[in-house]
Structures are given as C-alpha cells and as structure tokens.
Amino acid sequence: MNNNRVISFSDIDADWKLALDADNVFWGVVPKKVDGAFMMPDDLITLYQKEREHLDKELHDFRFNAELNCIYIDPTDKCNANCPYCYIPSRIRKKGTQMTGQELDAVLTKIAAHFKTSSKKPVIVFHAAEPLLVKGILFNAIDRFHKELLFGIQTNALLLEKEDVEFMKKRRMGVGISLDAPEADINNISRATTRGNGNFEKAVQAIDWFDGYEGLNVISTVTKFNVHRLSDHVRFLHKKKVPCVLLNPVRVTRIPALKLKPDQKVFAENLMDAVDTAMDLSIKSGRQIVVGNFSNVILAIISPSARRMMCDISPCGGGRTFLTITAGGEMVPCGEFIGSKEFSGGNIFDTTISKAMNSKPFKEIRSRTVEKIEECNTCDFRHICGSPCPAEMYARGNMYKKAEFCDFYKEIIRHAFKLIAEDKVKYLLRKDSLAYMQYEYQYK
Amino acid sequence: MTKKIKSENKKTRHSKKPSAVSYHLKCAKTANGLTHFVMYGDVPKKKMPL
Fold first, then answer.
1. pLDDT by residue (tens digit) across A171-192?
2. Fewer CB within 10 Å: N-end or C-end of chain A?
3. pTM here?
4. How many Cβ atoms sit within 10 Å of the Cβ of residue A146?
C-alpha cells in the first residue's frame, strides 16, 4: 500500500468538483461556487482518513480474492447468424464442433462436483455460438441439474419457440436476447443471419413472449451503425416491458469488428442520452428500465464490490470469477480468447477446473492489472473502468495497452459522478436493489 | 434499511445543495455470482442489485 498517496481533484462539470483516491475509490463530490472555486470540507478529509484502510482492503479482496462463480459453456461452435463483429473466428463457426448430451452431462457433473462445498450455487451460462441449435440437450441438462446449478442463456432468438420461453421462465433462467436497434434495417446489418437477413423479427417476438419477465436482458452491441439510435432503442424496449438493456461497446478482438467501432465521443453522448431517457421513462411510467452497463459504473463508484459485470474491473473476471468451456471442452479464461489456442487451461474431459484455474494462461490474464498499464497507472478512474479488455488488446498486439474505449469510459464515469451528486442513483439501479444494501458510511 | 435510505433521499431532495456528497454502500445480500456481460443468475427468488 502506498501511504504517501493523496486525494486528487478533478472537474465533473461546471457545478461539481470530484475528490478521489484512485487506489480505493474513496470519493466525494463538492459543489463549486459561481467563480469555479470549491471548499473541501475538513470533516470529509477526516472521513477519508477514517475509511481509507477499510476501503483498501475491500477493493483488494474483491480484485484478488473473489472466487470462481460463473461458467460459460459454448455447447456448439455452429451459428445460424453471421454477425460481422463476432469474436469467434468464422473457421470455428463453420467447423461446427458440438457437444453431445453425454458430454454436456459430463461437463455439468464435473462443475457440480467442483462447487460442491461452495456456499453459493454457480451460474452456468450457455453462450456463443448459438446455443439453441442444440436446445434439446440443453433443456434436458437443465432439468437434471437445476437444483445444483443456476442457468442462463444468451441467444439470437432465431430458433426460440413459445414453449421454450415457458421452460426458461419455469426454471428461472437469466435470458439475454441479442437485438441492436429498434428497427429491422439497422439491426439486421449487425445481427445478420447466415441466410442473409437478420434476427429483428424473431428477437422482437421473443421479447413479446417474455412479457416483462424479470430475468430478461436485451444485449445490444454498439457500433457505428446503431450508435445514434440508443435512446430510441431504450424507448422501444421500455414499451416492450424489458427491464434491463446492455449497450455494450463492440469488442474489436477481430479485425472486421474494428471497422464497426463507433466514435468514442459520439458513443458517450448517445449513451448518456439513453441513460437520461431510461430515467425519464422509469419515473413517468412507474415501470423501470435500466441501462445495465451504466448501472455497473454507478456500482463501481458507490459499492465497488457489488458490481455485477466483470469486464470493467482490474484484473478482469476472465480466468478468475468466470471461465468459458468451448464445444470441444477447452477451458479458456473468457470466450473472447476462443480463437487463441495458447490461452487454453486444458480440456475439461482430461483435467480439472482447479488445474485450469492454476494454469499459466489463466494466471497470465489474472496478472494483467491497471497498475502495469501505461496511462492507466496514473488515471483516476483506473479502478472504475478496469481498462477492458485483455483479449481485445492481445489481439491488437499488446495486452498491456489501455482500453480501446478509454475516452468513452472517462466521459461516462464523469456523468455517473454527476448523477450521483444529483441523487439520481435510485433511478439507475434496479428497483428495490438499495434495500439490499447498507451504508458503510455517509458524509453528512 | 429501506426506510432509512428513503428518508435520507427525501432529506437531500428538500435541502439546499450539500457541502459535499460522499457515501459507500455494502451489498448485504449478494446474488449468486458476479457475472460477465449480463446479469444472469439474478432471477431467482429475490431481486438483486442492478
């Protein structure tokens, strides 16, 4: 721990100044006077001195001692979509390895055994390529293991049927539907199918079938095509009773995706508009929609260890709090590494999850911290954004480079502090979530 | 706990601009797993942060 460190001051906007210890995310926002001057209250400094050690420990534990709690399973490499930004190389998607029912059963048995002594059930997420291509074996497996494991699925909905929705609701699954825009012509550019059209019609039908189900999320990948449509997307999804949307930056792990990258300033402006739209709609209608990736930034500030998405933390959750098992059984720190054989921690059919977690490639990902990244190591927001993503930067030639969307993160983090100062947090997290949280301290 | 937070929010709303805002919350009941990309695992039984 660096005992000589100091609180840094920076501008949030014309009204607010931010005081922040970047090493443990102690923060205070202080109003500015008309001339821009501000007064740091003495008792805020006293509060900082009192809480510093405890915040250091909390953040350190969360970064380095959190346990594995989520496993992504790609039960098939095949896909009926052809999204231009997909992080799975097309040679893998075309080769079409897929698990048999027996193999999936063996994988889940091994996972259940690994977590047998854990106090919490792990979450199993069926993920890319398109898991519903093997929905028969998935649903059988879920029926067999639902008492020991929690399940989620990420799907383009092309093969989803109404009875599948009923099954997922009955089993209380977390469901992510991929939809990038509120109209077919824009959505279908990026959510293209192998037949040349897109998933818009099927995804919207699926959202209607879920009818406000609390486990539903819509996952949108933001590119230069849809970046101007984010607020309208939120309006559209709110009408459809979707409780949570993620407006994630496109990962440029593969070169074709790089051409789709939105301008960071434009993305930040549109994301902030979308957050404001979501707040307005939630307040006026009484039915909430949250922008999940922005909510995660809010949590990273007000309750860092309660944050939910493990991309925006350093080290990231890959090979630490989650891992991915490919259709062939390879264990990789994250699905983003699926195209890089050198990151396999071993095959689940030949080795154990514990051995994979202790493998060299997994340790390598866990050792990628913001302290080792130039510019991040002096950035005030390094423990709020976490400088994602190692796979993306590895593919670009150097894992120890700052985040591809660095400027975007800086903008939205400043906006998050502004909304916190304006007491808007209750509109930005899921309804009632504050009831599950306790103040450890509050400046008065 | 909910009552406490509500009353504090109300107080903030009706008072003048504070001299500073600073607080830290701890998640009293965490969901079953911190997850990646999406909040899978939040569905069961009770609502969770986010």
1. 989 899 999 999 999 999 999 9
2. N
3. 0.91
4. 15
